[in-house]
């Protein structure tokens, strides 16, 4: 595991340099007052909007991070009355759009710190490091250390990995997803059940992996490799946390699907047919789109196409379990929502990076790593100044 130590040292060095870069050179990109005021709800006010000084920990709390900080500090509001996107000063019913596991962990850590931003920052370092080590370990067991080394660095140099350095669910979800993929390949169904269960209360995309669990569990059963007890208990373990989340929604709001209803507030429509038409329209009119924006973005459309290409090209290279995992984190998003934040959602789809790592020589790996790293540092300055990233 000498390569793991080397990779971890690179990861920690990049993180330290990235944070120092954001701290010292934040002024290179102007603070986006327009998007700050009109495009995001705020739990904690960024002092720069009041002509105050730059606050590093506050600047990391972009967009969705504000919701997680609020939930970690105050929990979910009982009997919410307001579901309003236009009034950015009200954070009431929309809070339920954000799943509970990540803010719960922040809240637990904050009990001993009493500073929710600092607690979120410390938790972020722990989760990102754990996700990095988990990714290296799991990929090395399946594909060998060379591909593990490359995969880990490529994923954490990816420009949208800036969210691993903020107060988002990405690091937590990635860590659990990696172990889910490992247990799935090894057919360790208890581990699969627990991992899938945790992902389902971390972010909605965890629900898309239930069919993956189901398909391979049934296939294993048909081969007489799975006991009847596992066939019964695995679905129960998988569903219990999410059922508890729906019960909580029902008790707090009177609607077990309240979380789903408020999530639709972020999108122009909830009709799958309309969404598919919209996304096809965006693909067709790629060159007319802005470079990067909320609902219309060349960057996100490029991500859609590139992931689709990797899924086709990587069908034989990737483990069937991992290929299907990435498919289910790609296709449902294109049916159930527009391409908003699509690139960020793909940052946790580690099999995509496994494919890249396994299909480039040393020169290409070095060149791509340098380019991704430069883009990550550039992206970080836009991120902390309230420009839309994902």
TrEMBL record:
GO terms for biological process: GPI anchor biosynthetic process. Keywords: Endoplasmic reticulum, Glycosyltransferase, GPI-anchor biosynthesis, Membrane, Transferase, Transmembrane, Transmembrane helix. The keyword Transferase applies. It is found in: Endoplasmic reticulum membrane. GO terms for molecular function: alpha-1,6-mannosyltransferase activity; GPI mannosyltransferase activity. The chain crosses the membrane at residues 6-29, 94-113, 119-139, 151-168, 188-219, 231-248, 268-287, 299-317, 364-384. GO terms for cellular component: mannosyltransferase complex; membrane. Pathway: Glycolipid biosynthesis; glycosylphosphatidylinositol-anchor biosynthesis. Its main location: endoplasmic reticulum. It holds the Pfam family PMT_2. It is a multi-pass membrane protein. Residues 100-245 form the Glycosyltransferase RgtA/B/C/D-like domain. This is Glycosyltransferase RgtA/B/C/D-like domain-containing protein. It comes from Candidatus Gottesmanbacteria bacterium GW2011_GWA2_43_14. The lineage of its organism: Bacteria, Candidatus Gottesmaniibacteriota.
């Amino acid at each position: 595991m000498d390569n793991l130590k080397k990779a971890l040292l690179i990861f920690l060095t990049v993180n330290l340099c990235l944070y120092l870069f954001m701290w010292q050179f934040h002024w290179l990109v102007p603070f986006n007052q327009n998007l700050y005021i009109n495009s995001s709800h705020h739990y904690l006010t960024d002092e720069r909007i009041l002509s105050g000084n730059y606050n590093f920990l506050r600047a990391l709390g972009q967009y969705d991070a504000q919701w997680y900080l609020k939930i970690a500090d105050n929990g979910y509001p009982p009997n919410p009355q307001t579901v309003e996107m236009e009034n950015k000063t009200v954070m009431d019913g929309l809070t339920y759009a954000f799943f509970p596991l990540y803010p719960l962990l922040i809240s637990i850590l904050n009990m001993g710190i009493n500073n929710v931003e600092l607690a979120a920052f410390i938790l972020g370092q722990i989760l990102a490091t754990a996700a990095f080590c988990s990714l290296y370990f799991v990929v090395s067991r399946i594909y060998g250390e060379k591909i593990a080394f490359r995969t880990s660095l490529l994923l954490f140099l990816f420009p949208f990995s800036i969210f691993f350095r903020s107060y988002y669910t990405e690091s937590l979800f990635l860590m659990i997803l990696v172990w889910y993929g490992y247990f799935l390949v090894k057919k360790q169904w208890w581990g699969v059940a627990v991992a899938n269960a945790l992902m389902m209360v971390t972010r909605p995309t965890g629900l898309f992996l239930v069919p993956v669990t189901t398909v391979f569990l049934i296939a294993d059963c048909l081969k007489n490799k799975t006991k009847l007890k596992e066939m019964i208990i695995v679905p129960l373990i998988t569903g219990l946390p999410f059922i508890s989340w729906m019960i909580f929604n029902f008790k707090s709001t009177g609607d077990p699907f309240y979380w789903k209803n408020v999530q639709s507030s972020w999108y122009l429509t909830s009709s799958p047919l309309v969404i598919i038409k919209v996304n096809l329209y965006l693909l067709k009119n790629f060159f007319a789109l802005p470079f990067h924006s909320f609902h219309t973005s060349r960057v996100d459309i490029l991500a859609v196409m590139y992931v689709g290409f990797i899924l086709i090209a990587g069908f034989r290279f990737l483990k069937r379990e991992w290929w299907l995992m990435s498919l289910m984190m790609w296709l449902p998003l294109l049916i159930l929502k527009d391409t908003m934040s699509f690139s960020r959602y793909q940052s946790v789809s580690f099999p995509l990076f496994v494919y890249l790592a396994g299909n480039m020589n040393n020169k290409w790996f070095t060149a791509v790593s340098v380019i991704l790293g430069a883009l990550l540092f550039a992206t970080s300055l836009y991120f902390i100044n309230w420009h839309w990233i994902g």
